[in-house]
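User: structure tokens for ABC transporter permease subunit, please.
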Amino acid sequence: MSWAGWLRLIVVGGAVLLLEVLCRAGVIAKTVLPAPSVMAGDLYRLLASGAASADIGETLGNVAMAVIASILLGFVAGVAIHAMPRVRRALDPFLATYYAVPFFVFYPVLIVIFGLGAAPIVVIGTLFGVVAMLINTLNGLDRIPRVLLKTARVHGMDPVRTALMVKLPSAAPFLFTGAKLAIAYCFIGVIAAEFIMSSSGIGYSIAYAFNNFDNARMYALMLFIIVLVTVLNAVLFTWERRIMQRRRR
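Assistant: Done. Predicted tokens:
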């Protein structure tokens, strides 16, 4: 592990240890925030009992559908917009301010169109993730070295071979970054949507536990999300670093 990795581990471990001490010493009331070790125990018992399995499965399924839709739509739209400079100039202001739009104001409309269920939640998750992928696709295509494209033309490569052998490998780091951001935004969109639009899922379960003063279940599910997203982000970060190292060789 690099020194930066050790530093991150020390900072996170120190913060958790400090929180544990403050909670155990009564500085933070247990009715407000249980100690991290208590949260971990509650999470273990919740997962072992299977009481949250259905909610976890539903949320992960919604996130998976939103991520797939975001990556595919964002990539295709990015390639299409990159090929049309005038359209891109017209859309640039909208893309720059896209995340200033509060998507949740549209949830009544989405319920009317898609009905109750997973569809409007997946749509909101997709709306959160798609533009991150689109913008990074545009950035990746913008940064393909012209010398590579000229070399492809000199060797008589057709558009398909140029795309597969030159453009995609060159833009891969940006596409990966877009996919990584799309995953993060989809998690945010889906779980937040479940708070207000669903009768199941992790977001709904957290809100239900909050309304019924069930701190043990609420904090256990919150800890589950934090651990899941942290592990997923660490895996993607390691994968991205290996791609970058391979490109430098």
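User: Anything notable?

Assistant: The CA atoms of residues 41 and 220 lie 8 Å apart.
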